[in-house]
Amino acid sequence: METGSSFQQLGMQQHLDHLRASWLSGKTRPLEYRVAQLEALGRFLDDKKEEILEATELDMGKVRGPSFEAFFSEILLCKNELNVTLNNLCHWMKDEHVDKNLLDSAFIRKDPYGVVLIIAPWNYPIHLFLVPLIGAIAAGNCAIIKPSEISKNTERLVAETLSCYLDNDCFAVVTGGVQETTRLLENKFDYIFFSGTSRGTGQSPAWMCLRIWDVWLRSGGTSATSQSRAMNPCHNPCFPCPQAAPRWGRL
């Protein structure tokens, strides 16, 4: 995996083309490959635990120690997600057989999207890039990770060390601010996981949904929400329409 600086020096489009070629080759599809990359993420968490806690303390003043939030949110929850994924991945990858008649052969096969983009926020800078990355790897995708430039110590740690654990052909870290993120969003991605606001990307979440992309938008705060592009608030009765959103937020 290239760090953010070399990624930009060698050309963003060149790297994106390389990641897409790696995905099209089928390299990320075998169970053994996915397990190896997930186990590498586990080693990253184990080896860099103290550095992660130190970086989040410097960036946000999160208290270090096994009984405090930084350890719980940035280490423990991520390791739990890894363990659940590794324990269930073989089952998740199997074809799901569905009802059919005597003349049919029918099943559901879960295929990866391709090249995905993960844009993480500043407040949970490890958790909210690592958990989506676990899912992306488990599903057989290549991924670009964009840590938040606001959490600069965590961003530097991720950019400098994650490359020692994951496959350079299939995963990349991009560093920088709004300008770099805007350049990223000018390219075609097969899926985007985005946590944050338009201030961090230079583009609104609604703009991303209007592009021909699959997007998962995650919003925290008092009315925490996760929304995919398919969840049209004007047509989905399970999601409040824009007029009702202020009332919903007060509940």
UniProtKB/TrEMBL annotation:
Keywords: Oxidoreductase. It comes from Malurus cyaneus samueli. One of its GO terms (molecular function) is aldehyde dehydrogenase (NAD+) activity. One of its GO terms (cellular component) is cytoplasm. The keyword Cell membrane does not apply. This is Aldehyde dehydrogenase domain-containing protein. Belongs to the aldehyde dehydrogenase family. Residues 28-203 form the Aldehyde dehydrogenase domain. GO terms for biological process: aldehyde metabolic process.
